[in-house]
Amino acid sequence: MSEIQNSGDLRQVKVEKLKELVKAGRDPFKISKYEVTTNSKAIKDNFEEMEGKHVSIAGRIMSKRGQGKVGFYDIQDSDGRIQMFVKKDTIGEEEYNWLKTYDIGDILGVKGEVFRTKMGEISVRAEEVKLLSKSLQTLPEKFHGLKDQDIRYRQRYVDLIVNPEIKDVFIMRNKIVRGIREYLDNEGYLEVETPTLSPIAGGANARPFITHHNTLDIDMYMRIANELFLKRLVVGGLGDGVYEMGKMFRNEGMDTRHNPEYTAMEVYKPYADFNDMMDLTENIVAFVAMKARGTTKINYQGKEIDFTPPWRRVRMQDMVKEYTGIDFDLINTDEEAIKVAKEKHIEITPLMTRGHVISSLFEEFCEEHLEQPTFVTHHPVEISPLAKRNVEDPRLTDRFEAFANTWEIANAFSELNDPIDQRERFEEQVKQKEAGDDEAHMMDNDFVNAIEVGLPPTGGLGIGVDRVIMMLTDQVSIRDIILFPTMKPLE
């Protein structure tokens, strides 16, 4: 039995109290509305103006103590707590006797005068008290609280009540999400909405969730990215740039940085390239850091991360050389690359190429060093099926991934707009899928058709919003910044 569940006896006591209320014509669940004129924070922040004024507040009983004809109740609303001071003589003996039967967790409406007690506590002197909702569960007791992390995620509604500091995280999350929109809107980007369900899972290499549309009798996929739809809109000339922020779904592992559904933002700007997207990335993150924390230098789990632009920019191959000593400017064949991979104990997979080896070595030996914000650029073409080839070295692409705290937080490129090259890369991805790669890209003939109509040179960017929020709120798990994270059912 969880620590916030009750024994049958405790719950039954509350049920009996509710029955007594109903019998007496005081059923709280028949009350549909209660006029609230202010809240706990406003009263405390503006006490000099509020003192002596009559207010109407509402909230949950979090503690109660009384001495005969006088009672003290801590009332918690969405902005904090305030003390209710109540005297039997003021509200009447009948109401006072009913009040004494109310439990911690019950929700009250209180009307009365704002004052300060002899002990210096800002309070509301109750003149009228009304029970608005009866809690049939028992909250975790005051001093131990709700500590079981699993239960906190499963029953966030209780977590928010007994650990009110967690509200600050989600209020800050809201500031960050609004800040991203504000920055892009101010830069002239148009926010759009694209499908969550599609007959093809495209825009990234990932394992999708599959569902079935009964009327059409076809399998459909929850989106793993919205890239291909957004680029269709660029083809259509919708605005000077488009973006979308919303949920993506990937049927993959779960850990402190991965939840099956998560929030991402993707933006596409015609006549721009991946260098412009680097500027956009660091400016967005710096902007929301200032919004949320008031600084671009943040402390995350005891270490300083400086998001002040400009960020470091380094080629993937140069990072591999820096941390392994292997210079891929001197390695030109798949055979040479695979030999090096074996020497470095990298797993060899079917159809592995020089580009795959570079990527594997980077992941194995380099990512762990990327504490400060860094743009890792020029990924191999084999792992970048939607990115434009680099003119100087067509084996590479004009792509970057942004890292901070060793985490990838953004991915961007100069978009591939050559339809012949795009079709060939999709066909290569299909071979990878047929060889057993569940994350390889599907063929999307309509998308190829779209860029045959004509996709202008375009810069595209995707930001992992949840990871940015984790760092800016100093939270160690993605579940701590998602109100209702995915959990395995208890039964």
Automatic annotation (TrEMBL):
Enzyme class, first EC level, given as a word: ligase
Any Pfam family: tRNA_anti-codon
PROSITE patterns per record: AA_TRNA_LIGASE_II
Coiled coil: none
Aminoacyl-transfer RNA synthetases class-II family profile domain boundaries: 170-489
Cofactor entry: Mg(2+)
Protein name per the record: Lysine--tRNA ligase
Organism: Sedimentibacter acidaminivorans
Name of the gene: lysS
